Amino acid sequence: MDKNSLIGLLLIGAIIIGFGILNQPSQEEIDAAKLRNDSIALVKSERSQDLIEQSSKVAMEVSNVVSEEIIPLDSATQFYRDSIAQIQMSAAYGEFSSSAQVKEKDIVIENDVMIVTFSTKGGSVKRVELKGYQTFDSMPLILLDERSRFGLNFFTRSNKNIVTEELGFIASSDGFTVTGDNEKNISFRLNTTDGSYLEYKYSIKGDDYLIGADINMVGLEKVLAPRTSELLLDWKVSTPSLEKSRQSQVEKSTVYYKYDEQDVDYISERSDEKETFDADIKWVSLKQQFFNTTIIADNAFSKYNAYGETETYEDSSKYIKALSTSLSVPFGGGDNETFGLSFFFGPNKHDLLQSYGIGLEQIIDLGWWILGWINEYAVIPVFNVLDSTALSYGVIILILTILLKLVLFPITYKTYMSGAKMRVLKPEIAEINAKHGDDAMKKQQATMALYRQTGVNPLAGCIPMLIQMPILIAMFKFFPASIELRQESFLWATDLSTFDSVLDLGFSIPFYGDHVSLFTILMAISLAFYTKFNSQMGMGATAEGPMAAQMKIMMYLMPVMMLFFFNSYPAGLSYYYFLANVISLLQTLLIQKVFINEDAIRAKLEANKKRPKANKKSKFAQRLEQMAKEQQAKTGKK
Q1: Which of 71, 93, 133, 215 is most buried by a 10 A CB count?
Q2: What predicted TM-score, i.e. pTM, was given to this entire model?
Q3: Structural domain contains residue 518
């Protein structure tokens, strides 16, 4: 290279360096450029949460600098801040970024039975207040509140995870009131940047607890991730404490569900569980003791990733359980699709739930199998007829108890008649026992021979009792499940649906509680009198030896057990059993004094002895003799 060329290159280099020095950006421009580049780099990382935190930190530092140096915020800085906010929204929500900036607004809709508050944030129900009901401490009954969650969850083509409850919907109305048979609609629309949208369209009738809800998906096939076939739906309700007894609410709150075209099932109330659904779902009910919130599909929710879950709040006095479900809304990939569903917010009233024709009444625990049939087809219809009168519920329970006792009177009569026959035969059975001493086999054979001669069936008194048992147990299920008794007073009981406390102890007794229930005490006393009197007329009158001792122990032990067992049960149930015991005692006296003549029974049994009898033993007698032989073989007696 010659000398002139070298000089030329040096001059060009000097010019470039001088130009760079003269055009060097100021420190403010460097900081602004650095801030912009950092923001873009963070956006490219697609970690929106980290970006939001870091950008907020940068904004805070800028704010601190401006404050310390008293530098006014010029238009360039404002532009950058707005740009950062837009970048953050775009990074987090992609096509739905504009909806993230919609301000939250509550919209109140009222009908004849409830006040429903919707929120534009999430476009869902935020709060439900039921009219005509109060909490146990006379406060408005809020079925669900701001802690509830409802939203769809899906991915977009730009790989953004969209949770709709985080975004702002545009409402079609500022609220309204609807009454009677009228029906009004309100829609909440979640818009995208390209004109497609997700819409919740609700329909509310004036006199109904049911709210229709259509999920309209318009143009979303251009937004959703490829091969999307479901949108996940998450719903969670923190059930508030509404009743006097927290324990009763815990034991009665759980998730019920119905598979499409199948039976109703539920998650156990006794433990916190997560249960995966194995088939498409027709409805899921988040059931409380006397109320429920239920989501119902017009067709069915997909079983994909579907489950129900319960979680008890151990340290909360305001909430009982977190009841939640995750379901899947089918998406076929069309340009305009609608998935129809409904919400029920209301009481666990059997006839009301049954009127919807979807098996929703089965969330009310009326007992298993025959117990449920007795309650549904016998007890509830009679109770409803009595309920249509102006009588108090204490009087209604009294009438219902009398009617049941009248229906069971023929069975009761047979029981006592069998007991009378056993009492007549007691002297002869005592002679048999004395004659054969310790020879159990001969005693058993002689006793069975006596029964055959006189025509007495020792089980005749047990069978009627077994027939009555389902009815008694059915009532045990009916009263705790009856919302009609809720907050209805009678005598000293202010609420027949929960325990009647006449004395608060201030401390808790194991297995008993921290209060004294007067109806439970009366029930236990009446049971003691009835058991004692009944033992003198039935099998207890003929029992001897160890059996007599056992029956005597049970006679005194049973009332004490019931005293502990029923102390925290509804006053209406204890009151019913008290009435049942008293009426049974009166029936016993009536049968003994009017219908049973032991002299006539004795004469009939003696006449039966004189009749020729077939030698063939009954299967029951054969079985007793076989058992006696086996017992002798075990003890080595012959």
Answers
A1: 93
A2: 0.77
A3: yes
Indicate the helix (H) or strand (E) that contains 542.
Answer: none
Q: How confident is the model at residue 35 (pLDDT cuts 50, 70, 90)?
A: very low
- Mean pLDDT, to the nearest integer, of 182-193? 94
Domain co-membership, 109 together with 90:
no
Render pLDDT for 296-312 as a digit per residue (tens, 0 to 9): 999 999 999 999 999 99
For residues 88 and 161, state if they share a domain: no
The domain of 83 spans 26-98
User: Which residue in this structure is represented by tokens 């939203």?
Assistant: 151
Q: What is the pLDDT of residues 607-624, one digit of tens each?
A: 877 776 544 555 555 665
Give the separation between CA 401 and CA 473, rounded to whole angstroms: 14
Q: Is the model more confident about 468 or about 570?
A: 570
- Residue 121 structure tokens: 């944030």
What CATH number should be reported for the domain holding residue 300?
A: 2.70.98.90
Pairing of strands 106-110, 176-177: parallel
Same domain membership, residue 475 and residue 568: yes
Q: Burial of 279 by CB count in 10 Å (0-12 exposed, 13-18 middle, 19+ buried)?
A: middle
Residues 285 and 230 in one domain: yes
Among 454, 445, 449, which residue's Cα sits nearest to residue 424?
A: 454
* Residue 274 and residue 402 in one domain: no
Examine the domain organization and report whether 595 and 466 are in the same domain: yes
Give me the pLDDT at residue 89, please. Answer: 62
Structure tokens at 24: 């060097």
DSSP sequence for 544-606: -HHHHHHHHHHHHHHHHHHHHHSTTS-HHHHHHHHHHHHHHHHHHHHIIIII--HHHHHHHHH
pLDDT of residue 197: 94
Give the model confidence (pLDDT) of 573-590 as tens digits: 999 999 999 998 898 888
Q: Look at residue 471 and tell me if it is in a domain.
A: yes
Weakest-pLDDT range from 18-27, 317-326, 440-449: 18-27
| Residue that is last in its domain, among 331, 364, 397 | 364
Q: Are strands 319-330 and 336-347 parallel, antiparallel or unpaired?
A: unpaired
CB-count burial class (<10 Å; 0-12, 13-18, 19+) for 27: exposed
Which residues lie closer than 8 Å to 223 by C-beta, 6 or more apart?
Answer: 95, 156, 157, 192, 194, 196
Same domain? For 80 and 175 the reply is: no
Burial (CB < 10 A; 0-12, 13-18, 19+), residue 201, is middle
| Domain end (from 317, 339, 364) | 364
Task: Give me Rg for the CA atoms of the chain.
Answer: 38
DSSP lists the bridge partners of residue 550 as: none
Average pLDDT, the chain: 83
Q: Say if residue 153 is in the same domain as residue 207.
A: yes
- Does residue 15 fall inside a structural domain? no
- Cα 572 to Cα 477, 525, 566, 568: the distances in Å are 12, 17, 11, 11
